[in-house]
Each structure stands twice: as C-alpha cells, then as structure tokens.
Amino acid sequence: MQSAIHLNAASAYPEGTLPGIGLSRFAKGLRELSCSKATVECRHDLPLRATAILDAVRRGEFQIGELYCGALSTVDRLFQIGSMPFQSSTRASAMQLLAVARPHYEQTFDTLGVRLLYVSPWPPTGLWTREPVHSKAEFKRLRISTYDDMSADVVRSAGGQAVQMPIGEALSRLHDGQLDGVLSSGDGAAGRRLGKYLRCFYDIKYATPISYAVMNAELYRGLAVDQRRLVDQAAQAVERSLWCDLDGRIRQNHSHMMAAGVQVFSELDAKLTQALWEGGHKAINQWEQGACDQTASILGEYFPSPQGR
C-alpha cells in the first residue's frame, strides 16, 4: 500500500443484518490486508433510501454504499431482477440468477459512476403480521409495508393494502399502529425489531433478494494498483463468506423468532398463496414489457425453457 486512505460506508440497514455484517467484515478485512493503512468507517441505520445513498456515493459524500436491489428499480429496471417474486427462493437459485445477471450489474453501475464491490444475500423474504392470516378476506384488511414497487404490486394484486417504504419508516409506523404487516426477511436485528410488533411470520419465500456494496468509481480508479488489489481481495472474501453463511443464518433467524414468541408458519392459505403467485407472474410480465431487450433477456438465460417460470 502507498498513502493511507480512510473511507466512509453508508447503509440504511442495521449492523446485525447480513449486508450490515458484510460491511463490517469488509472494513475489518481491508484493514488487516493493508496493515491498517486502509480503514472504513461503517454507518448503519441511516434514514436514507437506497437511491439517496447511491447519489451520495456518486457525489463522494460517502465513498461506499450498501444498496438494496429492488429499491434501485427506479434508477434502472435491471436491479429489479434481484428481488423478482417467487423466482429465487433458495440459496442455489439466487446464486444462479446472480451469476447470469452480474456482468449486467457491473456494467450498469459503471455507467452510474460507481463500482460494484460485492453482492450480499438476504434470507428469503417472508410476510410478517400482527395476527394469523387465515384467508384472502383477512389479507385484504391488512396494511402492509413492502420494499419496492413490484412487491407492492404483488400485494395489491392479492387484495392487500401495500405501502412501499424503508425498514426504518416501517418500524416507526408499526409503533404508531399504522401498519398491520411487513414483507421482509426479518434478518438479524431487523427481525428482532419487527418481532416486537408482529407476532406471526409466514415463510412464503417471496425471493432471496440481494444488496450491492458499491464504491465511488472515480475514487476506485484513482487508487494505486496495490490498493485496488486489496480492495478487490477484501470484497471477494466478504461475498464468499456471506453466501456460505446464508443457510445457517436462515435457521438461526427462525430459531430466534420462535424463542421470542413469534409464530413461524411454513405456508399461507392456499387461495391467498395462489393469488400472490399469480400477482408475481403478472408483475414480471409487465416488467419484461417495459425492460430493454438486453435486461429482459437475463431471465431467458436464467430459465433456459419458457416453462421455467
């Protein structure tokens, strides 16, 4: 390493989530690899949307940002792929989809002025509710927080009342009694907070979504060759470790939920499940119609046969 560098990293999610853990691991790994000549200060739980964090990294206000995939769909429809409904319900399927989409992510981020460092997985998304949901009729009465436009459309298609918002705002509205449910994996610290208000978790495996850790591209290109090498090395190590940890993390989350008195259900009412699936397929079809040919073709690569989805 040449001169010392200090980087600031921003995330809207708690430190105790997988992406939050990823940022902390990256900071620790880079510090160790550089013999403390490169340090990262991580700021978690920021009251910022993913698009605001992206803009801050592009301007250089933060050097690194952690960004939830679906929340970037307003920037480019490509980013919706990471949280497509009922398309990547397992670690293996999410990794397969990532392998197909990754070159496109890297290219698109480059045009936005940031460099993709690594990709963090989230445990599969489930539905949190205050009370058990026994029917589609009961679902229609629920005010549910979702994390992107597509998940909001899916919830509405099944009759629910969907409002898209960051997790911090959802927690505030739960406290005030303005929400009845949240679409979320409830990973780590986020799950512990949700469990204070929502006593039921339905493991519907809506998606195994991802977050991106990105760095200001001009800053990255301005680093010395050995500095870039160590940044890349630390990033690669973090990504490998997070995906290896995912299955164990899911089991740990469910164990913590049950220990806290949250009821964990493996499925919803059959008619409601069907309505959500149908809403998911409708949302994907609409997305494909609005996406450019190159972006839409990614699902074709992921599903070699039309029957795949």
TrEMBL record:
PANTHER family: PTHR33376, SIALIC ACID-BINDING PERIPLASMIC PROTEIN SIAP. Transmembrane segments: none annotated. GO terms for biological process: transmembrane transport. InterPro entries: DctP_fam, TRAP_DctP_sf. It comes from Variovorax paradoxus. Coiled coil: none annotated. It comes from the Bacteria. Keywords: Signal. This is Uncharacterized protein.
